Amino acid sequence: MLKKLIFILALIVSPLAAAHAQGVVTVGVLAPLSGFAAADGHSALTSIKLAAKAINAHGGLLGKQVELKVYDDQADPKQAVGFARRLVEQDHVSFVIGASYSGATLAAAPILNEAHVPMIVAYAVAPDITKGHPYVFGVGLTGPVEGRVGAYLAQKLGARNIAMINLKNDFGQALEQGFTSEAAKLHLKVVFSEDYPLGNQNFTPMLVRLKGTHPQAIYASGYYSDAANLVRQAKALGIHATIIGQDGYDSPKFIDLAGGAADGVYITTQLNRDSKRADVVQFLKDYKAAAGEPADMVGASGYAAMEVMASAVKKAGSLKGDAVRKALSGMKNVDTVAGRIYSWNANGNPVKTATVQVVKKGAFHLYKDVTDRKLLTP
In terms of DSSP H, where are the helices of 237-366? Predict the structure, then answer.
């Protein structure tokens, strides 16, 4: 009798479970929600949730609602590997948004690629994340490309003698590589170059040495907290060289921490806060309502990653990994809240616009958009 009851219950429950499974698209998210990179992880996740909500409000993907399966990888490669396997083997996700730093994303990419699970890299800058992984695509500028844009900007600002302050990790090294190669082509002279470790708080000794080389611009890689210390201390030493940063500076926290020293700092990034496009204006409004503070580049990139993957699924008309991969690789001129993607190269890295923002009166504003395809191609 008991066996018969179990069999009847199985007949009832199994179709219900199957119907539920057929009604959702499970999307994996790897993001650093604790540890040193937690601010970026939460920014990206806030935006990914906003994008998923918007997709669901418009009928979902292929008639199915999007559900997120989120893991905190703490920007740690070992954690990312374990969670990537779980997303594939236990959660059976349709695709993954990589909303973490380069080290963790590099570790997760081979696992997802081998399983033929498409992955969109939101903001990690290492150019090799997508290399040899045809199911992995980026939506952000790679570090070398952004570095080249930095050298282009220095020239446009009239600087010829450049000092470099380089964050000693994969982010800083990728930027340094791109900047120095383009600076050589543009006949810019690097008069000073030193590295510093993540979390450095005292830049004064380095800046004293730098000041004696009389640079016209300082190309300084870093994340917002390091950058705020750097620009404050540079101003205190009476250094008047133009400081050029990157999307690591792109946070309202940079301006809060740097105070008046932030004014006049230029950054190469991907979020144009002065855009008049309706989708960007709406994103900025929705993000501020959700997070209680203005959006940053990381948030915009998380949203863009979901936008792009949703477009690829709709174009493919399927959730099968190979179909989505083929659709994504062939997409052209895709507008996102983090800029226009003209195309993807053979390695899955985007050819996309960059934007230069400058801090004026305590806020980021547009200086110019960079659209030179030769400069922007990875």
Answer: 252-258, 278-291, 297-316, 321-329
